[in-house]
Amino acid sequence: MSLEPQPLFLRIYRNHHLRYIVFGLIFASLPYLSNWGFIRVSLLTTVASIIIYAIAALGLNLLLGYSGLVSLGTAGFMGLGAYIGGYLINEWSASVWIAILVALLIPTLVGILVGLVSLRIAGIYLAIATLCVSEILLKTFAELESFTGGMRGLTIRFPVILGVQMNRELMFMFVVIALIIMMMLTHNLVSGQFGRAMHAMRGSESAARAMGINLFKYRLIVFAISTAYAGLAGMLYVLYIRSSYPTTWDIMLSLNLVAIIIIGGLRSIYGTVIGAFVVFGMSDLVLRRLPIIGDMAGIPYVITGVLIVVMILFYPNGIRYIPQDIKKLIRKITKRGVQNV
Amino acid sequence: MSEFSTFLQLTLRSLETGSVYALMALSIIIIFRTSLTLHFAQGTMAMFCTFCIAFLVNSYNLPLWLALVCGIIIAAIMATLVDFLVIRRTNAASVDGRKIITLGLIMVFIGLAPMIFGSNVQNLPRFIPRGDLSIAGASISYNAILNIASGLALMGVLFFILQYTKFGLAIRATASNEVTARLMGVQTKLVTLVAWIVAGILGVVAGVMIAPATTVNVGLMAPIQLAALLACVLGGFQTFYGPVIGAYIIGMLPNYLSYYGSSVWSIQIMYLLILLFLLIRPNGIIGKKFIKKV
Questions:
Q1: ipTM over the 0.95 cut-off
Q2: Are B111 and A121 a contacting pair at CB < 8 A?
Q3: Topology of the domain comprising A8-340
Q4: Is B105 inside a domain boundary?
Q5: Nearest one of B103, B111, B72, B110 to B86, comparing CA atoms
Q6: In the structure, what pLDDT confidence band is assigned to residue A304 with cuts at 50, 70 and 90?
């Protein structure tokens, strides 16, 4: 390590937070591209929903990546956030910030309750408990018509944020900013004391316990965090898509979110976003355009499911690590070449 | 209708759902105990096989019993394929990985079903189309009696095999400790394979029992899968018979609750009761403690 000041571009390159901002600027340029006619407006909606799902997956990645616990209720918690936020904006004409705060808090509280009961016993109970909760929530969304609009769904209009009337492009920016903030937050979270504790738990639960880490406490915290992310993602969904139907929040969405993490890479922040593009972009951007395959109803599910199985069996690190592995492979080949000479 | 006959009616109706839940719970616990995998895709795979049977009956006019035999064969082949292609390749360490693989399998089969069988829902006839038996003012269809009886018989045979045969001993040995069992000469791979096949067959039988009550669609087994998982939680994961007891309780409780309590909130009340029970007895009715070895 040299103590000489590094060139500016290297400093930017090495600074994680600046990298996230640059990453966000790429997304932020999309509305302009669509205004100038380079890309279609429908693509913007697809990308926005992918970003929203990526935010929910970021939270789930903390849970699955660091504690190995699976939540099958992410979609349910997202729906809860979406309906609470939409209801507050519609019926109480609450400001967006208050709606976001409540849409974050209530799913988190429900998550803490679920975690308190299920995490006490063993890891697998959380998966079953969250599956149960998501079924109850789904039924409630469909039946509690005064609150959710039932099967007719709930619709809102673009709100006013910071005195500015939102429209499609501005809302897209809002979603991108939320993604960047959540990526930075996740980065700070896993780099700090909390992250070290989680890393220790992942290495060996017994060793972590011996070092004085309260497994139950940290599991509960990480599960609560993941539900908070889900609540926020649900809120952003209803803000951008402006409607919410019970069928959106079924178990398949939760499974897709798990798939994002497995495909993108466990414990990887960029991997989560890439995974979201693979899972949700695949069906909207690629498969629907293809002949024959595009008409088959279940094909995205089949491909995603097969990808989950194949990734776990043969490439458990996720596609985030493909560049590193290629580098390693090249180094190996060149080294062998040198030795042969 | 007298108070007693109402009670009897409720009990008889609950027994039928209880049997379906019990078969599913047993299939899940068999896989969980022998290959340490919580098989979330059990319901989906059973749904797929039931779809096969409905397809054979409706499109090729096969008699129901022949279609059921075909369905059982398909279930066995699917279970074998899953065991050979997927489960055996995951090493013993990645318990989390296997759990997630079964999540992937859910997506595969939910996607495949409409591709193969079309997106229309199908109907499956009952084995005994009509006829009711009345006992002390309560009536029950012959088909329900057949379901209850065949469920009990199937479970009876399985528990007899588990408890009194050499192969049952091998299964129990594998369930208690796979490595030790292998060292003692038990063919644990064969045991695991048989466990998957048996579970697949139990699933398809449960599917055929419940299908006439609704329609055959992709969501057919989802509530039953959930009930079976809860039955495992309620009965405890440490024995084979605990989940079966739990399944009958879960089959009966909502019916009593909706009659004697609230009909809208019976399921939610039942979930709450189960949660409260778990707070008192975290390891279930028959539960022993999870012991983690370092």
A1: no
A2: no
A3: ABC transporter involved in vitamin B12 uptake, BtuC (1.10.3470)
A4: yes
A5: B103
A6: confident
